[in-house]
Amino acid sequence: MARPSRPPTSPDGTAADPSAAPSRRSLLRGGLAVGAAATAGLAGELWTGRGRASAATVDYPGATWAPASTANYTASNRPTSYPVNLVVIHVTQETFSDTIKLFQDPAHAAAAHYVVRSADGAIDQCVREHDIAWHAGNWDYNTRSIGIEHEGWVDQPSYFTTAMYHASAALTAEICDKYGIPKDRNHIIGHYQVPGTDHTDPGPNWDWVRYMRLVNGV
């Protein structure tokens, strides 16, 4: 599941004093205030059902726009502001619909760029690729990665369906082609590989050999 990692800067982009970094509790409180303002401004654009029209254009043609709260990511202009050279694979530990709801909750303080559904491989985009999603729990990794969540639980391999593998691999391959990311395990990584994380996803039941073959069109 995506986990928060806020930038080491103030909201206006100026450098912040690392010793004054907010606690998780204060971060969540701040998110509530920011999120309330964002919700008021975006009320007409919030996702209320699959296939609903949106003012935003998805980055991946097969995705449906399901915007995360603006309190759960950092607006940016990647790859101009930061290079994009990683894809991070997550497992939600939630249902698909509940994951979308969490990402739209300003108190959650985390979101990924994409969420892939187990049953049919449907993909929702929650954060634009040029923005920095708070998904890896490591600011450096967040700035240069695209985060993809997969519906399910790490100890329930039945959630990792053929439809999910194929849809996710096609998405990852397109992202790699777009940003010139090598299609290997040094650049397509699990959340557990992010320095400082305490997460284990996608877990031992994720078939990395199968997934990487699909990403590479083998």
UniProtKB/TrEMBL annotation:
Bias regions of kind Pro residues — which residues?
1-10
| Stored InterPro entries | Amidase/PGRP_sf, Amidase_domain, NAMLAA_amidase_2, TAT_signal
Q: State the EC number(s).
A: 3.5.1.28
Q: Which SUPFAM superfamilies match?
A: N-acetylmuramoyl-L-alanine amidase-like
Give the CDD domains listed for this entry. Answer: PGRP
- Indicate the enzyme's highest-level EC class: hydrolase
**Keywords annotated in UniProt:** Cell wall biogenesis/degradation, Hydrolase
Q: Which domain of life is it from?
A: Bacteria
Catalysed reactions listed for this entry: Hydrolyzes the link between N-acetylmuramoyl residues and L-amino acid residues in certain cell-wall glycopeptides
Could you identify this protein by its name? N-acetylmuramoyl-L-alanine amidase
Q: Which organism is it from?
A: Actinacidiphila acidipaludis
